Amino acid sequence: MQVQDQIGRILEFEKTPKRIVCLVPSLTELLVDLGLEDSIVGLTKFCIHPMDLKQTKTIVGGTKSIHAEKIKALEPDIILCNKEENSKEIVEICSKIAPTHVSDIFTIDDNLELIKQYGKLFSVEKKALDICIEINLKLTDFNQFIKNKGTKKVVYFIWKDPWMAAGNTTFINHLLQLNKFDNIYQNKERYPEVNLEEMKLNNQLDFILLSSEPFPFGKDHILEIEKFTSKAKAILVDGEMFSWTGSRLLKAFDYFKSLH
């Protein structure tokens, strides 16, 4: 079986991979939803869904730093990485241990493509198709819900000191657009640093969205950031719903409705 991952690398397998190391928390969740929990042998300390999974699997590090020897000892048939979550160096290290599949997701279509690819790769095509169908149904329903809502100007913060926001070419920005949230930093690439004094001058800003991850924004940060706006309201938002790919979209659209 030959598979091309989402950054164009060709992987070849004689049979269905049965021992999986996953270095991407959202894709660990997807594997479980695809019925592949028993095939997961290694994951990261950030793979928190489902909650009890880490108790039965080997933790091989984080998303930015891994224990290569631990991974090697697990004798994986495949290692799953993501271009944004894992560095090029990590992918290169993993590729010397086992075939390494790299996802690269900017849109819902990219996400659906990956789910179908995992379906083929791990011989769970029907389950993958079922998840894709359900995501599409929820997306159609949400588009109906949102169509008469007005557009709001927002900034979506992911980090503090320095303050960093989601910009263009991110899955977060794609989901902001879906919600009719006009990202004031969508003309900036990736995750730009934000000058709060400059942001203060934008009197069109409606909402400041403070993500729960990777920086754990809390209620105390609402007062702090609202000093730098004339009228915008700061809101804490669930970062997993805006940034996790895979099967998390099954839950995300209901969350977005509640947010509106």
Concise overview:
With 260 residues, the protein is α/β, with parallel strands linked by helices. The chain has helices spanning 25-33, 68-73, 88-95, 108-121, 125-146, 171-178, 196-200, 219-226, 239-243, 249-259, and strands at 2-4, 10-12, 20-22, 40-43, 58-59, 78-82, 100-103, 152-159, 164-165, 181-183, 207-211, 233-237. The termini are far apart.
Topology of this protein?
Layout lengths: L1 E3 L5 E3 L7 E3 L2 H9 L6 E4 L14 E2 L8 H6 L4 E5 L5 H8 L4 E4 L4 H14 L3 H22 L5 E8 L4 E2 L5 H8 L2 E3 L12 H5 L6 E5 L7 H8 L6 E5 L1 H5 L5 H11 L1
Parallel strand pairs: 3-4, 3-6, 4-5, 6-7, 8-10, 8-11, 11-12
Antiparallel strand pairs: 1-2, 8-9
Helix pairs in contact: 4-5, 5-10
Explain how this protein is built.
With 260 residues, the chain is α/β, with parallel strands linked by helices. It is built from 10 helices and 12 strands. Helix 5 (125-146) packs parallel to helix 10.
Beta strands, count: 12
Characterize the overall form.
globular
The percentage helix is: 25-40%
Seen as an oligomer or otherwise, the chain set is single chain
| Main β-sheet description | 5 strands, parallel
For the biggest β-sheet, the strand order reads: 5-4-3-6-7
Radius of gyration: 19 Å
Q: In terms of structural class, how would the helical and strand content be classed?
A: alpha/beta
Strand content: 15-25%
Query: CATH superfamily of the largest domain, please?
Result: Nitrogenase molybdenum iron protein domain
Distance between the termini: 45 Å
CATH architectural grouping of the largest domain:
3-Layer(aba) Sandwich
**Poorly predicted runs:** none
Number of spatially distinct domains: 2
- The average pLDDT is 96
Order of helices and strands: EEEHEEHEHEHHEEHEHEHEHH
Write down the CATH class of the largest domain: Alpha Beta
The CATH topology of the largest domain turns out to be Rossmann fold
